[in-house]
Write a structure and sequence with these properties.
Layout (H helix, E strand, L loop, with lengths): L12 E4 L4 E3 L8 E5 L6 H12 L1 H6 L3 E6 L3 H11 L5 E3 L4 H5 L3 E6 L2 E6 L2 E5 L5 E5 L7 H12 L1
Parallel strand pairs: 3-4, 4-5
Antiparallel strand pairs: 1-2, 1-5, 3-8, 6-7, 8-9
C-alpha cells in the first residue's frame, strides 16, 4: 500500500522521542512534512536530520510542521536528538505499520543479501491533509531545501 497524491493523511499514530503518542491527523490544518529515514546516527540519516533542523525556523516561519520517522526506539531518538542538537521532532515506528501504510518499508538488497528496510522518502501534505507531493529514493544533499521550497508554495 502507498499514499497517492491527493489522498488524505491517514489516521495513524507513532511514538514520539519522549514516548508520547503522535497522531498524524493532528497535523491537519497546516502544511506538513513527513520524512522517513532508515536509522539514527548513520551518516546519511544524521545529515538529513541536521539539514531539516537547520531549516526548522524557515519551515516554522512558513507555517509548516516537520516530523522525521524511523524504526528506531523513542530512547534512541532522544539520544540522537541530544547528540546532534536536532530541532526537528522524531517519531518511532518500531512495528513498521506506518511505513507499510506509506509504502516505504520495502525489500532492499546489499552485497547480494536481501532484507526489509526503509526507503528514504518524504511526503508533503497540504493544510487540508491531502498529499501534495512525494519524494522517493531521496538523496540527502539539497533535499531539505527542495522540500522547503515546495512547502512554501502551499503555505
Amino acid at each position: 500500500m502507498t499514499i497517492a497524491e491527493g489522498e488524505a493523511l491517514p489516521d495513524l499514530e507513532l511514538a514520539g522521542a519522549d514516548g508520547a503518542k503522535v497522531s498524524l491527523r493532528s497535523f491537519v490544518g497546516k502544511p506538513f512534512v513527513l520524512y522517513f529515514y532508515p536509522k539514527d546516527d548513520t551518516t546519511g540519516c544524521t545529515r538529513e536530520a541536521q539539514d531539516f533542523s537547520a531549516l526548522a525556523a524557515d519551515f516554522a516561519a512558513a507555517g509548516v510542521a516537520v516530523l522525521g520517522v524511523s524504526p528506531d526506539t523513542p530512547a534512541k531518538h532522544a539520544k540522537f536528538t541530544t547528540k546532534y542538537d536536532l530541532t526537528v521532532p522524531l517519531a518511532s515506528d518500531e512495528d513498521h505499520a506506518v511505513m507499510e501504510a506509506f509504502g516505504v518499508w520495502v525489500e532492499k538488497s546489499m552485497y547480494g543479501r536481501t532484507y526489509m528496510g526503509v526507503e528514504r522518502s518524504t511526503f508533503l501534505f497540504a493544510a487540508d491533509g491531502t498529499l501534495a507531493r512525494r519524494w522517493g529514493k531521496v538523496r540527502v544533499a539539497g533535499h531539505a531545501e527542495q522540500v522547503l521550497a515546495a512547502a512554501k508554495l502551499l503555505a
